[in-house]
TrEMBL record:
FHA domain ranges (all copies): 35-87
One of the Pfam families matching this protein, by short name: Trans_reg_C
Annotated signal sequence range: none
UniProt name for this protein: FHA domain-containing protein
SMART domains: FHA, Trans_reg_C
Positions of the OmpR/PhoB-type domain: 118-232
Keywords: DNA-binding
Portion annotated as DNA-binding: 118-232
């Protein structure tokens, strides 16, 4: 999405202050321009999923409208708040530092824009982040099966490496979920020709890989209902 006059939309993130299964301090870029928050079930997986049964499947939605991010409750059973104020009718415009609560703050998220979003990446991380991330800081060594970030090798699990290697082979291209599932979970039993993978397993795998990429985590870009792109 582009704004009138050639301006890019504001870069925004959500940082988890509370919300299983995610760790405190986990950061999620808001992409594309509409993100649904909720709880995964066998038939539905939101863009950002939480485990609590108090969270509705389609709990709330963050949207980019006319250059500003807004949050709107989607008729959830236990409600959505912004800085402790319940959302009633229509969307509420978010400003950097606002806290979005789901189900009486069972889930609590901090919204941040631009420069502040970069600062949130250092939460719980002992390594300093000096300036914005650069793509050349990420190296995928397929010979040694190693991920190198800012000249330091990062340990990966088998499935994390399978996903990264597949995305790297098709870097800067959209890799469909139908291609990712058998490549990463090839040992699983098949259901209608596709590995039987839980709805939140891929989301959690992408989350862990982004965490290990650190300040360069935004090289992984998801396209809801379509697939993932590695931009290196």
């Amino acid at each position: 999405m582009y704004l009138p006059g050639g301006l890019n939309p504001p870069f925004a993130r959500l940082m988890v202050e509370r919300g299983d299964p995610h760790e405190r301090g986990a950061c999620f870029p808001l992409e594309p321009d509409r993100v649904i928050l909720g709880r995964s079930t066998a038939s539905f997986c939101p863009d950002l999923a939480f485990a609590s049964l108090l969270v509705s499947r389609r709990h709330c939605c963050l949207e980019l409208r006319d250059g500003r991010w807004t949050v709107r409750d989607l008729g959830s059973r236990h409600g959505t708040t912004v800085n402790g104020r319940p959302l009633t009718q229509g969307p509420s415009v978010l400003t950097s530092g606002d806290r979005v609560g789901l189900a009486a703050n069972v889930v609590l998220l901090r919204f941040s824009l631009a420069e502040e979003a970069e600062q949130t990446l250092t939460f719980g991380d002992t390594r300093p982040v000096n300036g914005p991330p650069r793509r050349e800081q990420v190296v995928v060594d397929t010979t040694r099966k190693a991920l190198i970030v800012a000249q330091a090798e990062v340990p990966l699990s088998v499935k994390e490496w399978r996903l990264l290697e597949l995305l790297y082979e098709h870097r800067n291209e959209l890799v469909p979920y139908a291609v990712i599932w058998p490549a990463v979970w090839g040992e699983r039993a098949l259901r209608n020709g596709i590995p039987d993978v839980g709805p939140d397993e891929l989301s959690l795998l992408v989350y862990r890989l982004r965490r290990k990429l650190g300040a360069c985590g935004d090289v992984l870009k998801t396209r809801r209902g379509q697939g993932i792109i590695l931009t290196v």
